[in-house]
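Input record (one chain):
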Amino acid sequence: MQPLLKRKISRKNSYQLRKLKEGERIPLVSTTMFETMLNNESRKKYLCYMLSLILEKDMNQIMENIHFVKQELDKENYHHSKKTVDLVCKLDDDIYNIELNNNMEVEGLERNISYAADLYKSKMFRGSDYRYQKVLQINITNFTFEGNESCEEEYFLRDKNGNILTDKIRILYFYLPKIREKYYNKSNLSEIEKLLLVFNEQESKELSEIMEGHEIMEEYVKESKKTSTKEEVIGLYDKELYDEAMEYHRIRHAREEGIQKEKIEIAKNMLEKNIEIDLISSCTGLSIKEIESL
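The corresponding structure, as predicted from the sequence alone:
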């Protein structure tokens, strides 16, 4: 079976960051909203509710025992490199790492795996007994992989027969596009799927029906809507949109530059074989003048 991270990425039904209309709220796939509403001790009830659904534990118990850990991984313990995780918290000596994956790149997921490994060994101190942390990494992923029909996937270290080597490193992926697809098709949703929709979907009759009777979800919508009108948050979100647009143009320019170089190499090879310039132009899309200049 082909490894997950070697499969082709699908962007169908992913959330797109854009300028908001009046009355709309910033979705959680925005780093600005993720930091404001989830990675925020003053609003930890939303994180605790999400963890309670995933872990099937009492939310109040989580609220009483959870605490946030600094985001920057320790340079001394991690090969002297600066690494910044999205959100790390600790509960009953276990570490929970929540990563927001919004850049449509496999490299980001591979980097997250390295974070999980670093957190796993984060209790190793020189001269002390070995002690490894139990780590659960939760990936909120705004894309999926072609051929994947699952809304949620769970990974451990296993042997070829499926036997788990250790339960101390566990990685979960929640694929927002597949959850949206389920929502559009009016299929039955799990509680965690409902919550992730509430985090990102704009208000509608259907969303109101999903939230009905869920006090925390209703509170989230009300508070996130209010937060989305604050000048400081709007400023950060606008900068995020600008940075994303600049990154898109940078990638597009680099891709176009690479395609142009490839066309030139093909044209050079065809010239060496004495192929007519008109035919080279037709095959590569280069102008006759560009080909003659080679």
